[in-house]
Amino acid sequence: MYKRLSIVMFPFLVIALIGACVWGYLEHQEKNTILIKAENQYQRAFHDLSFHMDKLHTELGNTLAVNETSSSSYRKGLVNVWRLTSQAQSDITQLPLMLLPFNKTEDFLANMANFSYKMSVRDMTKQPLTQDEVKTLNTLYNHSSEITQQIRGVQEKVIANNLRWMDVESALASENEVHDNAIIDGFTIVDKKVGAYDELNWGTSGVTVFSKHDVKMLSGNEMTADQIKQKAIQFLGVPDSPSIKVVQNGGNAPEHQSYSVVVPSPDKAQADIQLDFTKKGGHLVYFMKSRDVPTAKFNLRQARDVANEFLDQHEYKNMSAVSYDQYQNLATIHFAKREKDVTIYPEQLTVKVALDNLEVMGLQATEYIYSQKKREIGQPKMTADEARKQLSANMKVSGQTLAVIKNDLDEEVLCYEFIGTMNKNIYRIFINADMGLEEKIETIRQEQAQAAQDQKKSM
């Protein structure tokens, strides 16, 4: 009987074994195909990075070769520098360097892109390059030469030894210490060299994209950890407890000194409540209370009213909602300061409200706290009707107001803010109130347009 059964089953077992082998082979081939594709993408991005850095160094040299009074040639060169720097940044993001300390080089390229862009868009006939800015360009030219040479050295090793980026990814993901990897060693050396560069003077228009907050703008005295703890207790309305933890941040850097407060949630199933305060003045810049919001029983306007009341009860006065958003039953309302019927967009903050019970769940007020200052808001040189002529004749304008925004040169400018509809899209357009130039255009959603309309009605 067993003999007969084995005779019957044997062909099926052979077929199953062959099928398993074929399946394993196909899986192996598919895995190899994916690995080859990923490796090819890494190699392309790396060689593109080397090419773009070489072109960037050449373009900086070409820009410096022309006369400083030739504004059109300088602008063309700076636009090319910005374009090539942005391409180099894009190449880096496509490489498996997330676990490798390469942030100094990325920051350097980001600041270079920001510097070249802001100089290229300004009117050089009225504001020519300063000697400090020309000196910075020369320094960037020298630094780009060093970075290019280092990356070329890595490229030569990759080509000569047929090195693979997949090995780099595996090595970085491994918990074991990495030894003798030419690519990792090469990029580490590049980052160390960039980190050793002296701080550059980015000029009046070349404010870095990672600009430090000016603590001198903050009001009030230096706060102690215990004073911050009491402010957090007062803000939340909870009793004092040893479980409330206060940690000072920033070390010896005054621009980064702050306090983080962690308050255990009354409900152990929920996350702890987190707050951040500035050390100088003890201003609340961040608050977050996390929990699930299962349903939305209230609408965005009701959430806006609650957020307005919340801001009025604390130190954030004269704020006006400028846009709404809703995600996972949480309302996010963006506010800006209102002063003399003018919206001050640099002084912005965000409030999160749960739509199940209208509880305020979060606050982000960093830009508001650090942008406060006394402003002299003058009268516009153009009328609203004159500014509106800069809009398309096909745009249906539904609202307008005056606003202060930051332009591409990081300068505060007075603008007419228009909300309009065209081609079934809603736009927020800022027209310079002195020169009639278009400063900024934003495509906004219906909720944001409604916020702008509500803002206009509240004037």
UniProtKB/TrEMBL annotation:
Q: Which intervals hold domain Sporulation protein YpeB N-terminal? A: 30-167
**UniProt keyword list:** Membrane, Transmembrane, Transmembrane helix
Q: Which domain of life is it from?
A: Bacteria
Q: Which InterPro entries match?
A: YpeB_N, YpeB_PepSY1-2
**TM segments?**
7-26
One Pfam assignment: YPEB_N
Which protein, by its recorded name, is this? Germination protein YpeB
Please state the gene responsible for encoding this protein: ypeB
